[in-house]
Amino acid sequence: HNSNAIVIADRDGVIEHVNPKFTQITGYTDHEIVNKWPDIIRSSNTTDDVYKDLWATVLSGHEWRGELQNRKQNGDLYWARELVAPMLDENGNVTHIVVTQEDVTEARRLSEKTSYQASHDLLTGLINRQEFELRLDRVISASKRDLTEHAVCFLDLDKFKIVNDTCGHVAGDELLRQLGALMQNNTRQRDTLARLGGDEFGLLMEHCSIEKAYSACEQIITLLEDFRFHWEDHIFTLGASIGLAVIDLHIKDGEEVLRNADSACYIAKNLGRNQVQVHTDDNARLQQRKGEIQWSKIIEEALEDNSFLLYVQEIKSLKYPDKAVDYEVLLRLEMPDQSIVPPGAFLSAAERYNSIINIDRWVVKTTLNWISKHAEQLNNINTFAINLSGKSMGDEAMLGFIIKQFEQGDVPPEKIKFEITGTEAITNLRDATVFIKTLHDFGCRFALDDFGSGLSSFAYLKNLKVDYLKIDGMFVKGILDNPLDYEMVKAINDIGHVMGLETIAEFAESQAVLDKLEMVGVDYAQGHVLGRPFPIDSLLSR
Fold it and tell me: 322: helix, coil or strand?
């Protein structure tokens, strides 16, 4: 047994003898260790329960086997596979305890390394294809069982070959490392980012609707557009084509969903790169592209003919039900056939064809005009919340335009709260900070919308002068039956309160959700259970 360390202790655990191997492993000499308790080599990384189990087993006359992490004399930690055996007298009482220890530190390190190497891409440190496919299959099984919806995106870098051809593979490798880290830092914690091979990446977004996934992919496109790769005296710009596919109960297996995402990515490349395509029938996808072009024409006409409509939805205080109410201003489009279209149908076209700033201007101007016209009837309304896009915050003329509307209509700035999404704010952090500060000093208030999704929200919160956090509806929806969503709502609410902000939960769809939000301590709620959106003019007859 000379390859094992041996320790002999009395029945109370006081060490009486150690062999030379023990000294060699731990660095403790005989006189440093004899007459001491075994605690001398104990590390805090092994829990009390393990030691309690060990002592109970041995003192009842049985052997205990297991692995413990111990501490050497110099403070280094090591793993030992231990056999702890009692020595009994003729009456079966424990007189001594014999411990044999085998140092398994290296073996454990190798096994951890092997399992890490088996599941990770060694260049970027991201999950590799094999592990990605395993996780994909797990999520697909869960989706069939719980009827949940998830999304997968397949991302192919554009212009990667140029870097490789111009500067060689070392530069190409460094670029992949930097991009891997950049994307990893800008995805939700529960999502899985993987390098699938070459310059292809996969992103698995769990419990994520295709709409949310689409906007997350657009964030990635923007992130990569803004990224510059410096190598020696070269500066490279990049882009990406992204294919997006949904995981629902109709998906057979991981292979099918990856194929769907891959074919959508292929279409994205063919349609001009640097864009996101959702997998549907290929032809239907091209129809959507044509549809967006048609929408851009409809939007231009709607702005000219004033055929946009303002709707509002109530935001109610959960703590003070009698408090003056707040409303969020929502946009609708009236079509020539009198049908009313929600913004989800045309906003992506407005973003793509740059009419979003004009839409924002229309909403600000029309809302402030309306408030100015009906001021005396609106005393029981606290604020109106107006949504602004990231592009508007980056538009130089927008600040002046907004302030001018306030002055012309004589509307008190504290009557207006602007809602911006955190992901848009961080994409244009410098512009957003100036924009928010200027209007905040002017007297307006700000809410950060969809908080908790997209990017590392908490990190940039300190830089933005906002008054409210709107908790992402995705978490609110799952608050009753998904413990993770419940904890997210709780965490966002707590951090908001610590920073002196009030919190608003959107998508409150039932009384049970409201009760839960109230229990968590959320300040305000908004959703169908409190009232659906209605035309702004109906406020006058309330």
Answer: coil
The string of DSSP codes covering 479-522 is: TTT-HHHHHHHHHHHHHHHHTT-EEEE----SHHHHHHHHHHT-
Query: Is this model's pTM higher than 0.85 or not?
Result: no
DSSP string across 172-188 = HHHHHHHHHHHHHTTS-
User: What is the C-alpha to C-alpha distance for residues 29 and 38, in angstroms, rounded to an integer?
Assistant: 14
- Residue 49 token pair: 């329960």
Strand, coil or helix: 277: strand
pLDDT higher than 60, residue 271: yes
Residues 205, 208, 213, 219: is their CA dihedral positive or negative? negative
Contacts of 456 (CB under 8 A, 6+ apart): 185, 186
**The residue to which tokens 């999950």 are assigned:** 127
- Right CATH for 120-279 from 3.30.70.270, 3.40.50.970, 2.40.160.20, 3.50.50.60: 3.30.70.270
Q: Note the pLDDT tens digit of each residue in 482-506.
A: 998 999 999 999 989 998 999 999 9
Are 79 and 104 a contacting pair, CB within 8 Å?
A: yes
Percent over 70 (pLDDT), the chain? 95
Q: Kindly tell me if the per-residue pLDDT of 454 is higher than 70.
A: no
Helix H or strand E encompassing 196: strand 192-197
Q: How confident is the model over 499-523, as a mean pLDDT?
A: 95
Q: CA-CA distance, 147 to 141, in Å (whole number)?
A: 10
Mean pLDDT throughout 503-531? 95
- Residue ranges per structural domain of the chain: 5-110, 120-279, 312-541
Among 3.20.20.70, 3.40.30.10, 3.40.50.620, 3.20.20.450, name the CATH number for the domain at 312-541: 3.20.20.450
What's the chain's Rg over C-alpha atoms? 31
Query: Nearest Cα to 299, choosing from 358, 211, 367, 364?
Result: 358
Round to whole Å and give the CA distance between 24 and 71: 13
- At 413, the pLDDT band (50, 70, 90 cuts) reads very high
Q: How far is CA 349 from CA 130, 152, 208, 392, 506, in A?
A: 37, 23, 22, 16, 25
What's CA 418's distance to the chain center, in Å? Answer: 23
In terms of CATH, what superfamily is 5-110? Answer: PAS domain (3.30.450.20)
From residue 126, give the alpha-carbon distance in Å to each of 143, 157, 467. Answer: 24, 16, 37
As a whole number of angstroms, the distance between CA 230 and CA 175 comes to 9
Q: Which residues pair with 312 in a beta bridge?
A: 329, 534
pLDDT at 456 over 70: no
d(CA 398, CA 420): 14
CA distance 192 to 205: 7
Cβ atoms of 392 and 360 closer than 8 Å: yes
Residue matched to tokens 């965490």? 491
Report how far apart the first and last C-alpha atoms of the chain are (Å, whole number). 89
